């Protein structure tokens, strides 16, 4: 990391907290190693990775809750460095989210984990709550009926007051089509983890730096890998500041100063 890079703050918009006691300490240590000041944290470990991998290919779902309480505890002990997102369960009444919303800065829904499509009324019920409480909504899309990027576009069109974040730069490694689909909707941003450099660059060019968020998917992906990708985009300082810090602060309602 250069001296210039060290002077630029980084907020990682997408990390997971594994359901083990050592996870918060390991996460903070990795952030320190990579020069990441703050991170948005959502519960991880909802199922073994091999099972999730099968679900992504063949379909499947769980109905159990993610450990949102563990996320709150870790964030409370982090001196403000970890920022909690609520991992909602569409198999439950939206009230479970509404009751907890004040303690969180945003909400995630995952068709990959819970198997409920983006065009399902149960998803809409959760988005209604997000609109009421002023949360942004992070989601992943799948190459599956009801959960494609086009379905996210339809959902975001219905809820223009809600800001949606398309995770992992779309579906797959080179989803330039996702960038094209979300381009007309100002309330949809793209998070960069897992996507190819060409997709991240296309997002900056077609959406503008105001609509791109740096994320790593740590601990599954080492943040330094994703930071290297960001460095290779040829960003000017203003674009870097937006993607790595200011856009996230805006969505989270945080001061943009370090």
Main attributes of the structure:
three-stranded parallel β-sheet, 258 residues, TIM Barrel, alpha/beta, six-stranded parallel β-sheet
How would you describe this structure to a colleague?
The chain has 258 residues and is an alpha/beta fold. The chain has a single domain (3-252), classed as TIM Barrel (Alpha-Beta Barrel). It is 43% helix and 14% strand. The chain is built from 12 helices and 9 strands. The chain has helices spanning 3-6, 23-34, 49-58, 68-76, 95-100, 111-114, 121-133, 149-158, 176-182, 197-207, 223-231, 237-252; strands spanning 11-17, 38-43, 82-84, 86-87, 106-109, 136-139, 164-166, 188-191, 212-213. It has a 6-stranded parallel beta sheet, sandwiched between helices. A 3-stranded parallel beta sheet has the order 1-2-3. Strand 4, helix 5 (95-100) and strand 5 (106-109) form a beta-alpha-beta unit.
In short:
The protein has helices at 3-6, 23-34, 49-58, 68-76, 95-100, 111-114, 121-133, 149-158, 176-182, 197-207, 223-231, 237-252; strands at 11-17, 38-43, 82-84, 86-87, 106-109, 136-139, 164-166, 188-191, 212-213. It has 258 residues and is α/β, with parallel strands linked by helices. Helix 9 (176-182) runs parallel beside helix 10.
Helix/strand layout:
Elements: H1 3-6, E1 11-17, H2 23-34, E2 38-43, H3 49-58, H4 68-76, E3 82-84, E4 86-87, H5 95-100, E5 106-109, H6 111-114, H7 121-133, E6 136-139, H8 149-158, E7 164-166, H9 176-182, E8 188-191, H10 197-207, E9 212-213, H11 223-231, H12 237-252
Parallel strand pairs: 1-2, 2-3, 4-5, 5-6, 6-7, 7-8, 8-9
